[in-house]
């Protein structure tokens, strides 16, 4: 139980951390808490090695690749155009759809960004905790469209801005976080269309 609680805390920190040095430090803490999983380690070590060889997209490319529509939801007016404020300090591009019903952020995990994306995903795959806070927050892992999807559902009384969240690695490069208001993970997945992300895939040739 002590290790599980520690893993949950570390995983949460990793999700919030996109700095390479911080991610490396956190990875060491998780390995100390739960030990190593050889198959998972090999999978993500290979990803890190390959992604480190790639030059990240420029801000202009990130903005150009970001979709103007996600499923049936249109990109909100504040997200249109080449507004540089949509690129965060961690080089993540963000935007909301359907009057802020769905929020999406995408980090190009290439080059120096690799650790900040791959290590959190690795920890999510290793995490065995399925719920917390008296089951008001629930975690899931599910393969959808040949992608491993990590989901989080939150009850409304948690006072979270978004009640559902999906995290995935798209095309073995782009770390995507999706958040949905007043919907569960399955509804959030149903609201999006992965074909809307093909401009990112086009850059990954």
Automatic annotation (TrEMBL):
Keywords: Signal
Keyword Signal among record annotations: yes
Signal peptide residues on this chain, from the entry's feature table: 1-22
Cross-referenced PROSITE patterns: PROKAR_LIPOPROTEIN
Protein name: DUF4252 domain-containing protein
């Amino acid at each position: 139980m002590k290790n599980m609680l520690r893993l949950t805390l570390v995983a949460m920190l990793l999700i919030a951390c996109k700095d390479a040095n911080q991610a490396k430090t956190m990875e060491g803490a998780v390995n100390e808490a739960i030990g190593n999983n050889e198959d998972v380690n090999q999978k993500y070590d290979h990803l890190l090695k390959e992604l480190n060889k790639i030059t990240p997209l420029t801000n202009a490319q990130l903005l150009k690749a970001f979709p103007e529509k996600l499923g049936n939801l249109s990109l909100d007016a504040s997200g249109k155009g080449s507004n540089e404020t949509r690129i965060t300090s961690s080089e993540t591009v963000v935007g909301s759809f359907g009057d802020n019903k769905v929020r999406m952020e995408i980090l190009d995990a290439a080059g120096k960004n690799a650790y900040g994306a791959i290590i959190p995903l690795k920890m999510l795959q290793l995490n065995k905790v399925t719920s917390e806070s008296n089951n008001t927050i629930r975690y899931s892992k599910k393969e959808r469209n040949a992608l491993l999807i990590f989901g989080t559902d939150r009850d409304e009384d948690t006072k979270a801005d978004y009640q559902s969240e999906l995290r995935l690695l798209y095309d073995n490069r782009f770390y995507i976080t999706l958040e949905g208001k007043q919907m569960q993970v399955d509804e959030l997945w149903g609201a999006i269309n992965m074909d809307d992300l093909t401009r990112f895939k086009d850059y990954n040739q």
